[in-house]
Specification:
The structure is a single chain. The chain has a two-stranded antiparallel ribbon with strand order 1-2. The protein is mainly alpha-helical. It has one domain. Helix 1 packs parallel to helix 9, helix 5 crosses helix 7 and helix 9 runs antiparallel to helix 10. It is 68% helix and 1% strand.
Length: 384
């Protein structure tokens, strides 16, 4: 528990300092674009929340050298492996000039370092044909690098609203940490619990007021840690089904794959091009903003009202994963079920047939009549 507390305290204090003195660095770190298709905030907000998370993890590494030297070295090596992914995203946060492909390549490099330093390699899937493919020389390493980079990019994809990517990541890492604890894996348990503490330290200032954003550096750092822990958990413990971490990350991963299919196949545009048709964006526009009206002065509160819908969706994969982390067949069935749920939900919302359970009329202005008395979501198409 001391790893959680230290990571949380360092992260929350560093993030506070970044927010408090943003006037000194906002010309470099601020997100000034309020008009993009994926922008749902007001004003200039610093987007370097990953700095506090990284420093929280480093503080834990230093402490472990005193309290648990046997764990400290591997913990530090994992953080060392993460540096290409983190700094690639951080440079993008400051310069806004690092494309998706360079960030993916840097994250793949980080995964290769994870293999070199810690032996993190995907060598089994519990599917005979796939395992035969992984056994081909070099294929396992290539798939490992692509998988870790894909997970990191998926976390970045869902980082669109206050508290969304951070809380989803807390849920995923918390589940992995539980299994690592049950298995007695002190390294992975400490990595997970420290990551949860550091992310929650950022979360305090990000949700609900949106005083700071995770940024690409933070998203790629968290995504790399999730991907690398997933690989190590399966590589180090034969009891863990390879489909356990896949079910845990299925929400951000399927969001990414579905978006690629939607853009490339259905729309005929580049998958790397930003758009406003992600599931979280539709929920904001067709549930939250529709129910409350387009209240520009309350956009931050509308932003934060979106994330709990996606936390609930993510829990639909996390809880089954915890129940069946040893059972490959059950995990496969849950993955198929989640993908079906996602497509059904997306189809209903995009066609203005939102399930009634998701419709909630909120007063975001303290009872000042912010909720309009027009048609509620799911009844008919509004003007957008």
């Amino acid at each position: 528990m001391h790893t959680f507390i230290l990571a949380f305290l360092v992260s929350v204090l560093v993030t506070l300092l970044i927010v408090r003195y943003q006037h000194l660095h906002e010309h470099l770190s601020g997100d000034h674009d309020n008009d993009g298709v994926q922008k749902f905030h007001q004003g200039s907000i610093p987007r370097i929340g990953g700095v506090g998370i990284a420093l929280g993890m480093i503080a834990v590494a230093v402490m472990l050298y005193v309290l648990r030297p046997a764990v400290a070295e591997s913990f530090a090596l994992l953080l060392l492996a993460s540096t290409p992914a983190f700094f690639g995203g951080l440079v993008e946060d400051f310069t806004k000039r690092v494309g998706v492909l360079p960030r993916l390549l840097l994250t793949m490099l980080a995964a290769l370092l994870g293999f070199w330093l810690l032996g993190a390699l995907l060598s089994r899937s519990d599917v005979e044909l796939v395992d035969a493919f992984l056994a081909i020389s070099g294929m396992g390493l290539l798939i490992t690098a692509m998988t870790v980079a894909g997970v990191a990019n998926a976390v970045n994809i869902i980082d669109g609203f206050n508290g969304l990517a951070s809380m989803v990541s807390v849920m995923i890492l918390g589940a992995m940490g539980y299994v690592a604890y049950v298995l007695g894996d002190h390294l992975l348990w400490n990595v997970c619990i420290a990551s949860v503490g550091a992310i929650l330290g950022f979360f305090v200032w990000n949700y609900p007021r949106g005083l700071i954003f995770l940024g690409d550096g933070g998203a790629y750092l968290i995504g790399f840690l999730i991907g690398e822990v997933s690989v190590l958990l399966v590589a180090r413990h034969a009891e863990v089904s390879p489909w356990f971490p896949l079910l845990l990350v299925i929400y951000p991963v399927f969001e990414t794959l579905f978006s690629i299919y939607r853009r490339k196949v259905l729309q005929g545009v580049s998958p790397g091009r930003p758009d406003g048709l992600h599931l979280h964006t539709l929920i904001f526009r067709r549930l939250v903003r529709w129910a409350t009206g387009d209240l520009g002065h309350l956009r931050t509160r509308q932003n934060s009202a979106t994330s709990p819908y996606l936390w609930l969706l993510c829990s639909a994969s996390v809880f089954p994963a915890l129940l069946f982390w040893r059972n490959t067949e059950a995990l496969m069935a849950c993955i198929v079920g989640f993908m079906a749920l996602y497509v059904w939900l997306y189809w209903r919302i995009v066609r203005f047939r939102t399930p009634k359970l998701m419709v909630k009329r909120e007063r975001l202005n303290g009872g000042a009549g912010a909720v309009r008395n027009g048609p509620r979501p799911g009844s008919q198409k509004p003007e957008e």
